[in-house]
Amino acid sequence: MKHIRNFSIIAHIDHGKSTLADRFIQYCGGLSDREMDAQVLDSMDIERERGITIKAQTAALRYKARDGQVYNLNLIDTPGHVDFSYEVSRSLSACEGALLVVDASQGVEAQTVANCYTALDLGVEVVPVLNKIDLPAAEPERVCEEIEDIIGIEATDAVRASAKSGIGIEDILETVVQKIPAPEGNPDGPLKALIVDSWFDNYVGVVMLVRVVDGVLRPKDKILFMSTQAQHLCEQVGVFTPKSESRTELRAGEVGFIIAGIKELKSAKVGDTLTLVNNPASEALPGFKEAKSQVFAGLYPVESHDYDALRDALEKLQLNDAALNFEPEVSQALGFGFRCGFLGLLHLEIVQERLEREYDMDLITTAPTVVYEVVMKDGEQIEVENPSKLPDLGKIQEIREPIITSTILVPQDYVGAVMTLCNQKRGVQRNMQYMGRQVMLTYDMPMNEVVMDFFDKLKSTSRGYASLDYEFKEFQPSDLVKLDIMVNGEKVDALSLIVHRSTSVYRGRELASKMRELIPRQMFDIAVQATIGSHIIARETIKALRKNVLAKCYGGDITRKKKLLEKQKAGKKRMKQVGNVEIPQAAFLAILQVS
Ligand code: GDP
Ligand code: MG
Q1: Are 447 and 474 spatial neighbours (Cβ–Cβ below 8 Å)?
Q2: What does the CA dihedral 352, 354, 357, 363 come to, rounded to 10 degrees?
Q3: For the chain, N or C: smaller number of CB within 10 Å?
């Protein structure tokens, strides 16, 4: 165990985590150059294109250190987006150390801080690394100071590196060996292995990534899941180099995979502890909080006969994404579809994209919403994750909305603009701290406002410099109303929204006018109205592309003219019914374009 180091890389998005991980693999000879195409750890196509890491992956590396000894370095990659901070803490639970990578041309950003604190809270040794020193804009000295000022860890000795040009890679590995403690644990004790991640593989079924804390695990061992008491036969154990390689055993201190003929991801819950049926541990390791859906949206097939295919696709995606939830939903306007729960907006976008790309689905997605707690006058409490399902306001005692605590790091020049934005979004300032050239702002904000467009606005008001991290705080009573959209006098349920009363009229007007731009003109006038309860707060008309039906008439045959006009009216009616379906996708997301 003296020669094992388990570590993760943590960073703000784009600071170079994945590039650095690839360098380590290359340096330690895990893959040939040919196999090193682009970024190996980010294996999914979408990850590669978007340049983000969705699922944590791992690589066991062999490194010959300057002391002449060979060390087994287990690298556990972590995702770096705010939606997935939950997975960051999961990966860190399997490690004794973390490399904190900071882009030397950008400096400390919100998730640098958040991830670092997660690591420190878990008692993990944090080793700072300054990356991208090849860039002319790199300011390693200033960024060192920032790490010390803002995060409060020593950074003078931080390795200066460039993952891109390969500078400092060996220095980092050497620091890992020296600064990060070897794992502790009892190889002779009863088996305790923490499930860090699990996923579904088409050939072998469920694969579990585990950190063995105590004991030894071998193929043919009978394993016991401590939370469910389910028993399975261990078929194969091994490590990723990052290619999978079978081993004869996994010992205390090691990280590796287990295959045990499990068919359902549900049975291999992340955070559960594995032990042996014959010599069970007396208590389980501390697990993780379950990931809870924060953002909901309706997904509907454009063609109603694709409903079954959409369900199949969602089921398949869920095999690999335990954080994705869905249940059937019926909309008057959109027909049969699914209400889906996501960790955040990015998660929603990724799922939507995978459905469209990998499963060839044409989808209508409704505007994302958060979940509300509603207390009824009769005392019943319900959760509302679809605005059109909000009960009659007359029957409601109180609506509570989710509040998040957001931490924003922004250069001083943009503080004023960012504060104005936070106020517009009903934020309540909790703290403001000057830290070198940057300011750290802490605001409590309704999550609903953040889901809408806060992140984009934050970036545009700060020329891209502000960064954001947030976590759920609590549900708070709030003065909320339901905003409905009527198209030609009919309420379109899929367009309903829950908004704060103070911004409801403004939003209603803006939304109606956006709809006018987005819904194509048809053969008749289309009235778009925004209503709150029985009040109409805005009205727009999409003018008809009028075909002059009377031009076909000759003479003054009144009845003929009447008949034609009648026919056109009937057309209007028919269109009104299918009119809902003809509303383009963009219109369902129009609220995202309204501030
Ligand atoms: P991650 O989001 O932290 O995983 O970041 P990536 O590893 O995906 O890197 C983000 C971007 O920064 C990519 O375009 C990389 O090519 C680039 N990058 C990473 N490391 C360096 C570096 O040392 N120097 C320069 N110039 N670019 C880098
Ligand atoms: Mg990455």
Answers
A1: no
A2: -20
A3: N
Q: Which residues contact 275 (CB under 8 A, 6 or more apart)?
A: 190, 191, 192, 193, 215, 223, 224, 226, 281
> Which of 50, 164, 167, 171 has most ligand 1 atoms within 8 Å of CB, for mutation?
164
Element (H, E) at 74: strand 70-76
The SS3 of residue 565 is helix
Name the residue with the closest Cα to ligand 1, atom 22.
Answer: 132
For ligand 1, atom 6: residue with the closest CA: 16
Residue 109, CB-side half-sphere exposure with 13 Å CA sphere: 23
**Is there a contact between 409 and 466 (Cβ–Cβ < 8 Å)?**
yes
**Identity (one letter) of the amino acid at 400?**
R
Is residue 378 packed enough to be buried (19+ CB in 10 Å), middle (13-18) or exposed (0-12)? exposed
CB atoms within 10 A of CB 158: 23
Rounded to 5°, angle at Cα 199 from 119 and 38: 75
d(C-alpha 441, C-alpha 408), whole Å: 5
CB atoms within 10 A of CB 10: 26
Answer whether 50 contacts ligand 1 (Cβ < 6 A). no
Rg (C-alpha) for the chain, rounded Å, is 28
Location of structure tokens 């984009």: 456
Beta strands 273-276; 222-225: pairing state: antiparallel
- 515 within 8 A of 528, measured Cβ to Cβ: yes
| Residues 365-389 pLDDT 10s | 888 999 999 999 999 999 999 999 9
Q: DSSP readout, 507-558? A: HHHHHHHHHHHHSPP-SS-EEEEEEETTEEEEEEEE------GGGG--TT-H
CB 523, CB 561: distance < 8 Å: no
Q: Output the pLDDT for position 204.
A: 85
Residue 502: what are its φ and ψ, rounded to 5°?
Answer: -65, -25
Ligand 1 touching residue 179 (CB < 6 A): no
How far is 309 from 302, CA to CA, in rounded Å?
A: 12
Any alpha helices (H) in 152-241, and if so which ranges? Answer: 169-179
- pTM of the complete model: 0.79
DSSP string, 327-384: EEEEETTTEEEEEEEESSHHHHHHHHHHHHHHS---EEEPPPB--EEEEETTS-EEEE
Distance of alpha carbon 300 from its chain centroid, rounded? 20
What is the mean pLDDT of the segment spanning 116-122? 91
The best mutation among 18, 19, 48 to test binding of ligand 1, ranked by most ligand atoms within 8 Å of the C-beta, falls on: 19
Contact of 139 with 105, CB cutoff 8 Å: yes
* Alpha carbon distance 577, 582 (integer Å): 10
Please work out whether the CB of residue 11 comes within 6 Å of at least one atom of ligand 1.
yes
Reported as a single tens digit per residue, the pLDDT across 445-498 is 999 988 877 888 898 999 888 988 888 899 999 999 999 999 888 888 888 999
Look at strands 216-217 and 325-331 and give their pairing: unpaired
Peptide bond between residue 387 and the one before it cis (omega within 30 degrees of 0): no
